[in-house]
Every structure is written in structure tokens, then in C-alpha cells.
Design brief:
With 164 residues, this protein is an alpha+beta fold. The chain contains three helices and six strands. The longest helix has 14 residues, at 2-15.
Length: 164
Amino acid sequence: MLYSACKQYLLAKLKGTGLKSNPYTTQKALTKSLESHVGAVLFYSETYSRNGSKKRFIDQEGAKHKRRKVFDRTLSFTVTIGDYTDEAVEALFEAFIASLDAGIYVDGNFVPIEVEEADWVDSDDSLLKAKVAVQVKINFQGGVYRDTGFAPVSEVDISSVERQ
């Protein structure tokens, strides 16, 4: 769910900046594009690392649970914005960056969003038809979780207690 939620989030934010065409989601389609006013959300990488943190929470029915974060999971996407002029690209880019939230909720877990780096290119350095383009790397720092419940104390039957 994390991959699709992050990708859909970025596509919605990119469309919300005023991009006139539908954003591309594959490198092949982006390269074949003949448009100068272009946008794309492309998967970059995914990394995992072990984590053993635990948190306690109470669900909607009032039952207590433990949520263990088994792995840290970082998904990276690149967002590309291209247009005819520096000013047009910069305006779209600033609107896109300003629209990003601190994070999103996926399956009840908060996933922080970090903007890592941006790379500006002009028509001589790019395969795109756009005269100017910016490509920014965005990381989503989620995890893989395992929930466990607590033993219900109210159902424990104590029949005898011995003193020593």
C-alpha cells in the first residue's frame, strides 16, 4: 500500500500545481513524449533496514495492542517538471514544493516526506523536448509493521493463591 499511496499523492500534488497535461509514470513514455510542457512521477529506489521499535495503542473497540516496526522502509521518487522558460518551470516547481505536506498517513501510520535534491537541466542536457526541466528526488520514510495484542486480563481466572 505504501508504494501506490506515495505515487498517487505525488501525482495529485503535481496535477494541482497547474500542469496542463497528465503526468507520465514511466521513463519510456517520458522519453518518447513530444511535449514541451511536461511532468512526471517516476519510481527511483526502495531501501530497507531492521528496526525493533515498539509502540502501544488502543484500537477503536478499546482493545490494547503493540505495534512493532520490523523494518524501516524508504521509497524514493523523482518528479520531473519541464516547460519552455526558466520562469515557467520555476513557478510550477515552487508551487509543487510548497504543496507538499510534512507527511501522509498510510494504513494508520505517519509517513514523513523529505525533499532531497533538485537537478536543473536545459534542452542541451536533456532527452526531453522541454527547453528547461527540473528533477527533484522525494523520499517517503515508512515502515513494515506487525501488530500483536495483549492477553486479556479480565478473562484470567485465579482459583487459588498460595503464600509462602
